[in-house]
Structures are given as C-alpha cells and as structure tokens.
Amino acid sequence: MFTPEYLREFTIRVFEKMSCPTDDAITIADVFIRAELRNLPSHGMIRIKDYYQLWKTVRINTNPDIKVVHETPGTAVVDADGAIGMVGATRSMKIAIEKAKNTGTGWVATRNSNHLGIGSYYAMMALEHDMIGISMTNANPLVAPANSVSRLLGTNPITVAVPAGQQPAFIADFSTTPIARGKLAVAAKKGEKVPFGFVQDNEGNPSDDPDILTQGGAMLPLGGDLQHGSHKGYALGAIVDILSGVLPGANFGPFIPPNLAFMPMPEVQVGKGMGHFFGALRIDGFMKAEEFKERMDKWITTFRNAKPIKGKKVLIPGDLEREAEERIKKEGISVLPAIVEDLKEVAGKLGLEFKEA
Amino acid sequence: MFTPEYLREFTIRVFEKMSCPTDDAITIADVFIRAELRNLPSHGMIRIKDYYQLWKTVRINTNPDIKVVHETPGTAVVDADGAIGMVGATRSMKIAIEKAKNTGTGWVATRNSNHLGIGSYYAMMALEHDMIGISMTNANPLVAPANSVSRLLGTNPITVAVPAGQQPAFIADFSTTPIARGKLAVAAKKGEKVPFGFVQDNEGNPSDDPDILTQGGAMLPLGGDLQHGSHKGYALGAIVDILSGVLPGANFGPFIPPNLAFMPMPEVQVGKGMGHFFGALRIDGFMKAEEFKERMDKWITTFRNAKPIKGKKVLIPGDLEREAEERIKKEGISVLPAIVEDLKEVAGKLGLEFKEA
After folding, report:
1. Residues forming beta bridges with residue B109, ordered by sequence position
2. Chain A partners of B253 at a C-beta cutoff of 8 Å?
3. Size of interface A-B (CB pairs under 8 A)
4. How high is the ipTM of this complex?
5. What is the pLDDT of residues A29-49, one digit of tens each?
6. Which of A37, B142, B217, B255 holds its CA 20 to 30 A away from the CA of B184?
7. CATH code of the domain occupying A64-285
8. End-to-end Cα distance, chain A
9. What is the residue-averaged pLDDT of chain A?
10. Do the Cβ atoms of B229 and A178 come within 8 Å?
11. Tens-place pLDDT, residues B187-208
12. What is the rounded distance in angstroms from the CA atom of residue A277 to the CA atom of residue A139?
C-alpha cells in the first residue's frame, strides 16, 4: 500500500525530470492519483512507463505552447502542441468554464493532444462552479463499426458530471463499448474466455477470445450485436470521434496516432494528434442553481430508491467510484508488483528512487 | 399509397379543426410527413388519433402561449404551455439556432411540452445554417435502471445532425434502449418471441415475451444486461432525462405524464409536462465551415469504405432513412389499413373526410 501523497510526489518528480514545468507535473500527478483513488488503475500509475517511453521517442512535448487558435464568445479550439493529455485537457476545460461564465455555456475542442487519463477529472472541474461538465475524447482505433471488420473507432468515452445538493454529484463516465479494453487484457492474462458480444474475429464472427485483437479481430460497439443495437453504440462512438477529432482539426478514426511508443505512427495524418471535446453548462443559464440542485436530489433519491432486483443494488452513476475514493483514501493505494517494477525502472533511468511501501 | 401532399393537407386540416393556428398545424404536419418519408411510421400518421384523444381530454393545449422564461446569451428555458410537442420543439430549436449565431452555440431546455415525434426533424434544422444540431427528449417511463425492476426512464432518444460537403449529412437518431417500444408491440401482435436482452419480467429475470410490459415487466437500457454494459445505457438515458427533464423544470423519471389519453396522469408532478433539450453548434465557432465539411466528407467516406462483414453493408448513421426518403417520395406513403380506419374515424368526428387512396 502506498499513500496518495507518496505516489503524487513521486509522479511530480518523474514528470519534472522529463522537463515538464512543475505546474504541469502537478496536474498530471493529480489526474493519475485521482484515477487510483477512484479505483480506475488502468488510467493511473500503470501509464507512467508509457509516457516515459513516448517522451524518449519524442512523441510527446513536455514544454508545449498551448494556444487558442480560434474562438467565439462561447467556443474555442485549443492546439495542445503535442502536450501530455492531462495538460492540454485541464487547460481546455478551464477555458470552457470561463466561457460559460460569460455566455451560459462554453465548448472547447482540442487537437494535437494525447491520452488524457480519466475523463471524469475534467468534467468534475465544472461542479464547483455550479456547472454541468462534459468531457469526450477519441482514442486508438480498436472498435469496428456495425457490419464491418475494420477497426475504425476508439472506445471513445463520454463523461457527464452534474451537481446536486445534499446528494453527491451524478458522474457518468463510460466508454461507448460494452467493456473497456483493459478487461480484455486481464482476461487474456488469466487465460479466460470472455462472454460473446465483446469482440469479433477478423471476419466479423462472434468470438469469446479476449486475445482476438492480436489476430485481426475487433472490439464491438455498445449494444454488442446488431440485434441488440450495436448500430447505436457505433453512432455514439462516431459522435465522440466527430466532436473530438473532426471538429478541432485533430486526427480521427483510423488516423489517430497510437499512445504506445512501440506502435508505429500511421503513415497518413488527417489532422494534429489526438482530439478531445469539453463542455461546461452554467446551471443558472437555465434555472437557479439551488432549485436545480434540489431537483437533482429528488432525481437521485428517486432512482436510488428504485426497487432492486433481488440481491442487487440500484446505483447512481458515480456511486462506485465515490465509494472507492472514500475507502482508498483511508486504506491507501495498492500497486501491482509488475507496475512497481516498472516504476522502479523508470525512476532509475531518471535518477530518482521509487521506494516499495 | 398516398401522396405526401395529400396526407400533409389532411393533417393540417385535422389540427386546424382542433383549433391549432394554421402555422402550427403546418409544423405538426411537416414533422408527421417527414417521419413517414424517413420510414419511421411509428412517429407518423398513427399518432393523429392519440393527439385527437389528448385534445378531447384537454391534455394538450392547441393555442399555447410559448415563452422564454429564463435566458443568457447562449441558453434559454422555454415553457411550451402544454403545446403539441412539435410546436414547442420547433420554436425551441429556432431559438437555439439564433443564439448560436451570436455566441457560437445555443442551448434550449423545454418544459411543459408533449411527445415531439422524430427528433431528427429538429436536429436537422441546424444543417442549413452550417451548424451541428442536437435534440433529446424524455419519454414515458418504461425502462428499468440496471439492477432494478422499477420503470423509471423512457426510451429517451438522442439525435445529432452533422453537416458534410459532397456527402449527405451524418444523422444519428437513436433511443437509449436496444430497440424502440414499437418493435415490441409488433412482435406481440404477431405472437412472436423477442431475443433476450430487450425486456425483463417483474422480478428482473430475462424474458423473451414482447408483451411483458403489460405484466409489470420493463424494457432494458442499451447494452441489454449488466455484463454487456446496460449500466452505460442506463447512464445515457439518465443524462437525457436530466438535461430534458430536471434542467428545464419539466417532469422527469416516473413523474412524466403519459402521452396516451387512456393512461391516467401521475398523482405527483415534479415539474411541468414533458421536457426536451436542444443544441446548435456553429461550425465556424471551431473552424471554417468549408474545411470542416471536407473533413466530414473524409470521415464519411473512410467509414463507408470500411471492409464489410461478408454479405453486409457498412452504413453511415442516417443512410437508411435518407434512402427511404428518396424512395418513398417517389413511390408514395403506405398507411396500414387499421390506421386508415383511425384516420377516417377522427376525420368523421371533426367533420372532415379521409379518402382512401
């Protein structure tokens, strides 16, 4: 077990050594630690080695000149100049919030960025301003459109954070696929099969092999198969790709550069880097914030008090992550031995030390 | 077969007889005919009898005083004063478009409204202004949250319309459930079973009975079961309900008034009528419209040229409805005999005539 403080300090030092300004290193560390606390370790400390390797191969820019390249009172396009995802994303969401203060809502599309970690971090930035926050990003193409065998979409997650009053905020944070890619990797390592409806083989046949992506297979969109609405999951992933990729002038679809240093860059680029899309809606652009929050409390308690299926519990989006955060803050963060080894290795190369807990 | 012109004229006369101003009657007829042309007859002529009955029971207001009750430069809440859905929705989307002209985007949440027909009609209004159009609505509660047996959400559809250049526009229009409710009704009438993953019984067990809703069962959110991500479909439907219902001061969740006259009004109301949410994003708030449209053409052709599963065709959202529209415009609109009888009945009661084709 590690304390959040230890991992945060270590992460700050790592990114400072990669010549990030201290403020940026702090931002990156905060997003990583938040992912660990919210029990989303696939977006936490495990990514440090990936970022180190991307830095070594000059695929990320640790001293970016992040700029607004186009704007109106309520919209902007941000060029993140190849920044580490968290840096450009945080800056972009701040701009969306500032614009919302003036015009009711603010919308920022970001290009020339990289993997941004957990989208909920950015959407939740809106909450303290009594705003609804929205975050989307495109991602490495692994998902086939309905009826296709081509991998053209990422898992393209959507996050929406809505403030409440007495109740904790509503935080929906989900990929537009039945499962996250990490779950396939875990099943493959354990030698387990996965349920049908997650992946297909290279001819589009249903498959239960979690390792099928290495054999030309693809992930399926939310819905799983066409009968169960995979064309809707495809449409949803496509909307994220259009807003995050087409709109800001980033890459989209199969042109998105991979965020792993060992994967080659695509030969053709249709824009700059990876793309994101952020929104902030001021509650009092619609009604008094206090009234809205009372209404959200009513919504949340109505749904939380829904009759459960026997033996189950009805949850509000965000409940699990919030409960994890409370628990892990007390108990500490558990880091898998293989990741500890990676962190030691990166630390050694950067002249730092990573101490086992 | 009927010509679109005949059905449009008839529909205008029907709503004029229900004392709608002619402009409103034209709007309503245009949305109905568009639904028929786009091969979405469940939202077309079949609804005329429902609206007639809602009018007879004074559950809709055919002379509404539609007002903006709150606004900022980029946002507004519209009170539709109990209007027929199409009337308040069209007015609301126009306001969103006007606001987008000034601030880059416009967002309108609408309360005190009713069933609005096809959401694509409103989202597509943005296209001619070189804007992305968004439309959402909450709906009669038939869908159970993940892990619950309570029917708390509607099929809560989302529509996003994105302009392109040489290619036809991208029009995603989908409910946040595996299937629309109409498909259950059709299967039930035919005495057929439905695949598992669409509905559950009153204890939350998987069911293949399309008539299960009449026995306390519920529809399932997109994803179907928890393993395949029904918590994501639940989150998506919840987002639509919050933006469409909580935000404008409309009803939400189980409090939504039914749009069928024979169903009693809920005893408790938490707001006014049904709610919608509309958005318009000016493309040139982000980049030059011409450049964006070229990029959308590239996106569309990339996805349309994806390798299909053998014997299948890869579609762009909106392809099927656009192809239907071209065909039905030529061939005419087919109306089921039972609906023809309904239309004759309504016509008779209003002192009109509906002529068989």
Report:
1. B77, B277
2. 299, 302-303
3. 277
4. 0.97
5. 999 999 999 999 989 999 999
6. B255
7. 3.30.1370.60
8. 6
9. 96
10. yes
11. 888 899 999 999 999 999 999 9
12. 12
